[in-house]
Amino acid sequence: MENMRNIFFWVFIYSLTIAFSQILLKIGLTKMAVFSANNFNELFLVGWSVLRNPYILFGTALMGGSYFLWLAILSWFNLSLAYPLTAIGFIFVAVLSNIMLGETMFLYNYFGIIIIAGGIFLLLYKF
């Protein structure tokens, strides 16, 4: 049982980090001008805008940092258990998008969250 708490804790932290990085990337992109790259000059300008955007930089740094956490998780736990648990990230993204970005959630979104949470519970219950 201790092993289950450990894996859930670390995958929880990993998934929350990934979800928060996605929110930061979305905030950063909404603060940018139109994102298009029809020619090399526009591509350069988009790249320059991305490099100067603190939300995108921090979101990318979080994603990079979470990669090393994921490597540690893989070294500690079975992939067949750890990877399916990352589905909790879908819940985090939906809830954080609603709270931080003001995105609307509908009744079917809540049902989807319940189904995902139920699947995670069944996965944990199995082990």
Describe what you observe in this structure.
The chain is mainly α. The chain has one domain (2-126). It has six helices and no strands. Helix 1 (2-30) runs antiparallel to helix 3 (54-76), helix 1 (2-30) packs parallel to helix 5 (88-101) and helix 5 (88-101) packs antiparallel against helix 6 (107-126). The chain is globular, with a radius of gyration of 18 Å. 11% of the residues are buried.
Could you list some keywords that capture this structure?
single chain; 127 residues; mainly alpha; 83% helix
List the helices and strands and how they pair.
Layout: H1 2-30, H2 40-51, H3 54-76, H4 79-85, H5 88-101, H6 107-126
Helix pairs in contact: 1-3, 1-5, 5-6
Shape: globular
Spatial extent as radius of gyration: 18 Å
Order of helices and strands: HHHHHH
Number of domains: 1
Low-pLDDT stretches are none
Number of helices: 6
What is this structure, in a nutshell?
With 127 residues, this protein is mainly α. The chain has one domain. It is built from 6 helices and no strands.
